[in-house]
Structure formats: C-alpha cells, structure tokens
Design brief:
Largest sheet: 6 strands, parallel
Helix content: 25-40%
Number of strands: 14
Shape: elongated
Radius of gyration: 27 Å
Number of helices: 11
Order of helices and strands: EHEHEHEHEHEHHHEEEHEEEHEEH
Structural class: alpha/beta
Oligomer: single chain
C-alpha cells in the first residue's frame, strides 16, 4: 500500500539499479513519489519492474545514463520532467569504490572515482537545479560517507577523497540555494549490505568475503550492516517536507494590558489609517508562519491557546483559561521569529513563510481563535508596528509546531 509521505513529489534517483539506489527507489515508491530511476546498467528496468510488483500504483520511468556524462544527465532530467512535471527531489546516490594500495593505484582508477563520485553528483545537481529554481524550490540529497571526512581505511584513498569532497560540495550548495528554497543535504553513513560492499569484501578477503563483512559488523552497535531500505527511509525524510526545519511559531505572553500601533515608514509618524488596538487582561501573541503551515497547525494552536490554563485562581494557582477571566487576545504577525543567527551578525530570515502565505495563515489563525469564542484584535501584517505590553507574572510560552510534532 502506498503511503502519502512523498505523494505527488517527483524524484530522480541515480544508481538506482541495485544496492542503496534500489532501496531508495523502493521507499520512495512506497511513499507515493513519482520516480525516474537512472543507472548505467540495463538492470534498472528489472529493478523497476520488481518495485512495480510491490507497489502496483507506483509511477516509475527508467533511464540508462552515465552520471559522469553531463549531457546524459541533462537528458535524464528532461525525461523526468516530460514524464511527471517539475523535479522536486534529486537523490544523488550513484557511486563506486575500488580498493588498491595507494602506491599501486593507477590513475585510471583514481579518475574513475572522480568521474562517478564527484562529477556524477555535480552533473546531476546541475541538471536538476534549473528545474527546481523554476518551480520555486526542491530538495537534493547526496550520498557521501563517513569514509574520508570522518574515518578512513587502507586501500580506499580514491573513495575517501571523493566522498569527502561531497561534504564540501553539499555545504556550498546548501548555502548558495537556501534563499531560493532548495534544501541540500548529504548522508554520511557507514556500511550497508549492498553489492558494492560485497564486492569490496571479495577484494579485501577473496577466500572468505563473508568474514570481511562480519568484521565490519562488529563495529556497528546493532552488530549488522544497514539494509538499503533503511537508508531509503533517511533519503525519504531528507527529500520530504519533513526534512526541513519548519513549524508555525507563537510567542504567547500573558498580559495585564497590551497595545499596537502602526508607524508610517515614510514619515516616521503613526499611521492615521490604522486605529490603535488595545487590550486589558489576556494574551499578546507574536505569530510566525512557515510555508508548510496550514489548517492542521492552525487548528491545534488555536484550540491549545483557547484552553491553556495560566491565569491564577483564588488560591493563586494557574488554573484558569482566558475564557474564565474574559480575556482578550492581541495578535501580531512576526516573521523575525524565524531569525537564523548561526552565521554573521545580520540574521537570515529565509525560513520565514512567503508574505502572501504567511498573511493568509495568520488571518485564518485569528479567525479560528474567534471560532473558539475569543475576542481577537490584530496588528497590521507587514507593517512597522509599535507593540507595548505589561507581562503579568511574567508568563511567556513558546509554541513551535515542528518541535511539538504537529
């Protein structure tokens, strides 16, 4: 049965004929994505048929292409768009690993790793990013590794070098496209039971490759290698809307009084077109909205705030709701609740919702509070406002629907 986690999303998955790529494709089909499975091997058709048997409603096309060839990847992206529409997700999974002592590793083997592991991801990203920009955003998930950036094993110099490079590429692309709503993440996993790992085991211990795999599993807390579908679940999370830090945010302050006025940004004086809004006992709500917020978050927050018991009863205990004290609400839209201050000294607000969407959600939230039987006064969306309040308690409560799992 198809589950809706990725329903309607269009994804291109490289290295999809076997191993991790097959596991990713299987999980994406399970969650309702429309997928283009790309691989150099004709086995990709057989793998697609197997997934169709598991999920008869799955929308799948296949493309035989070499990720190291940019023109072929551009054509693969075009095939995806022609079949399903704009690309939402790119899973850059195709990769290779060949073992050899460093002093004996031929240039051809080194370049093979560079062509597939680095250029393959580069080419895939360059093929899909224009479509994502045109469509207003997307998600890219790159398969890196713990090898190279975190750990290393003898004989894996080329593999380690190329996988470490993908960490740097991921960081750069994440920064470059964050303000254009393209999320870029990479996985840094240990070993999974794939044909590539089994081939490595044969290369390291031809007489007993299973022993080599068991030696790897000893260092894993669960004492086994990951299943490709378990890795697929991670790729599904990072490709989904859940893979982005998000959530409607509200700062609730219990007040004895509060007010808001609007300032004309040209004159610096109060705006005569706005009538100042004032409340007595109640809540001042600072409301932030993200693009994925909607009816579910609105309904939960409005009901919770309506029934929250933070006003004192006759015994001085927080046991009364805003209804019990006939309180009022002053609702103020505030995108700065999404400030990201991790880098530099000027906050970034790229996580805040688009103005049109945020205005709509904020107004719907206020109407839902009214439907709960509350009197709600409002500021003006997008305006320069002066907010005054007297916090009673003080009581300040922060709601984040992402952290709450709403």
């Amino acid at each position: 049965m198809v589950q809706p986690k990725l329903e309607g999303k269009v994804a291109i998955i490289t290295g999809a004929a076997a191993g991790l790529g097959e596991g990713i494709a299987q999980v994406y089909a399970k969650y309702g994505a429309k997928i283009c499975m790309v691989d150099l091997s004709a086995d990709v058709d057989r793998t697609a048929d197997k997934i169709r048997e598991m999920y008869p409603d799955a929308d799948i096309v296949t493309v035989m292409a070499n990720v190291a060839d940019k023109d072929q990847m551009i054509a693969a992206a075009r095939t995806t768009v022609d079949a399903f529409g704009p690309i939402d997700i790119a899973c850059c999974n195709a990769g290779v690993c060949r073992l050899a002592p460093f002093e004996q590793m031929p240039d051809e083997m080194r370049d093979f790793h560079i062509d597939v592991n680095i250029k393959g991801v580069w080419n895939t990203c360059q093929a899909v990013v224009p479509y994502m920009l045109e469509n207003g955003g997307g998600a890219i998930v790159i398969a890196s590794s713990v090898t190279g950036d975190i750990v290393a094993d003898a004989g894996e110099a080329a593999y380690a070098m190329t996988k470490a490079a993908l960490v740097g590429l991921t960081k750069c692309l994440a920064v470059e496209y964050a303000d254009r709503n393209i999320r870029v993440n990479c996985s840094q996993l240990g070993y999974a039971r794939t044909p590539m790992v089994e081939k490595m085991a044969v290369e390291s211990n031809p007489d007993n490759p299973e022993s080599a795999i068991n030696d790897i599993a000893v260092g894993v807390p669960m004492k086994r290698l990951a299943k490709p579908t378990e890795v697929g679940e991670l790729f599904a999370f990072l490709g989904s809307d859940e893979g982005y830090e998000r959530g409607m945010r509200i700062v609730l302050q219990k007040v004895s009084d509060g007010s808001v006025d609007v300032i004309d940004e040209l004159t610096g004086e109060r705006d005569p077109t706005f009538e100042p809004q004032r409340i007595g006992v109640g809540y001042v709500l600072l409301v932030g909205v993200e693009d994925s917020d909607g009816a579910k978050q609105i309904a939960w927050l409005a009901h919770k705030i309506s029934n929250l018991r933070v006003f004192e009863d006759d015994n001085g205990k927080m046991n009364r709701s805003i209804h019990d004290v006939n309180g009022l609400i002053l609702s103020i839209s505030q995108f700065t609740l999404y400030a990201d201050v991790r880098k530099g000294n000027r906050p970034s607000f790229v996580k805040a919702g688009s103005p049109d969407h945020a205005d709509k959600v904020w107004r719907q939230f206020n109407e839902t509070l009214r439907a709960e039987g509350l009197a709600v006064k409002e500021g003006r969306f997008g305006a320069h406002m002066c907010v005054n309040l007297t916090n009673d308690g003080p009581v300040t409560i922060i709601f984040d629907t992402d952290e709450l799992g709403i």
